[in-house]
Task: structure prediction
Amino acid sequence: MKLLNRDSSDFLYQQIIEFIDGQQSQGLLRPGDKLPSLRKLSKQLEISVPTVKQAYIELERQGRVSARPQSGYYLQAQQVRTLQPRPSKWAGSKPTEVKCRSLIEQVHDAVHLPNSVALGISNPVHAHPPDKALARLMRSVISKYAEKAVSYGPVNGDAKLRMQLAYRYQEQGTVVNYQDMVITNGAQEALSIALQCVAEKGDVIAIESPCFFGLIELIESLGMKAIEVYTCTEDGVCLQELEKTLTKHPVKACLFSTAINNPLGSLMTNHQRQQLVALLESHDIPLIEDDAYGDLYFDGTRPKPAQLYSEKGLVLTCSSFSKTAAPGYRVGWLIPGKYEEQAKRIKRAQSCSTPMLQQWTLTEYLLSGEYDRHVAVLRKKLIYNCERMRALIAEHFPEETCISKPQGGSVLWVRCRSSVNTSDFFQDAIARGVSFAPGGIFSPSGKYRNYMRISFGVKWNDQIVQAVKALGELVKIQQEKQHN
Ligand SMILES: Cc1ncc(COP(=O)(O)O)c(C=O)c1O
Result:
């Protein structure tokens, strides 16, 4: 098919741009969509790959497309306002008694409502579920291990799984002894054990602000206090703010998502992570690193775990397969640093062991190489969904809405006009068949009431589009109410 005119005075790359404009105006390409690969378009237009690339680079220069390494080029929504860091607005913080709020319960309950689009929960695996491969492997595990597959397992979990995990850390440069690791019921149990290893009831735990509400609830359930540390939309927890906090308050431990923060999607550089560990170890303060999203980075290579930089054994690493493979399996792990003995004792007292059937299935998944292939595809789908969701929100929400540009994970952090309280229309959203996570639940001191977290860990379909549209309408109604 010849669509370009070689006799025209316009450069060929300009004609390619016009071709893309044409596709957009006909609705064949929409904001957030992935552009055809260089090779595909060069074949379609019978033109060289470098010429197509020249056009894409020009579109990128004009801010009309964004390039994602190893994934491709995506059409930007022209009107997306990206959430910017606002350190000047940070008014400091003080230790807060954490109070369990019923809204968290409602966000969880909404996931299970029939005929409802659950955008309030972060489940990246929805974007690319590996259920068939896991079901096949589980069947073979059941026939291989027979009744052992349903029996109690060792307190610290299956040795083969721990070895596989330790080997993967070693590949990234972090030496981990598999005998010290503890397999847990998801990252949540790993975090709970880690907190109990290093702190007691009444102690102050520094957390990121905003912070995943599950961690806030966990701190509450252990009777500890939380102090919020300003966390930047781009590169995570602010080290200067942390230093100030350490001098003013008796911080017993820090609990940070050192790789991808939920809900910001921010990502510390490896260098900042190293500085963070050095700062905390110089004060003898343990760091509990929540690395649940570490494998879901969008660009470059996997962020190094803070564990790598620990010299005193004060870093406790928590992670799981929940965000990459199977949240329902409840398999996670803890690398307890120097708290190995305490960690095993608490695990034994708390839940005895983690189901073997799921552990063995995941071990086979890792060994077969299928896990890595699956995660590579999952990352690409999430990158794609992220662009589409940003564009969709920009299209349907009020113009002044600002949206995060995450560097990984599966959620967007959306800021509405300051007069809007997003929890006020949570029930109205449920009534319209969609749920989201209101911003207030991401801070123990009630910050972020005009924010909301929207998940793009979804299988894309028209229902998603309608759901986002409905949310946009509700925000507009709220704004008007406040205005009148
Ligand atoms: C930041 C973060 N940490 C930990 C967890 C808990 O993970 P798991 O399901 O493995 O317990 C979640 C789950 O949503 C999360 O978002």
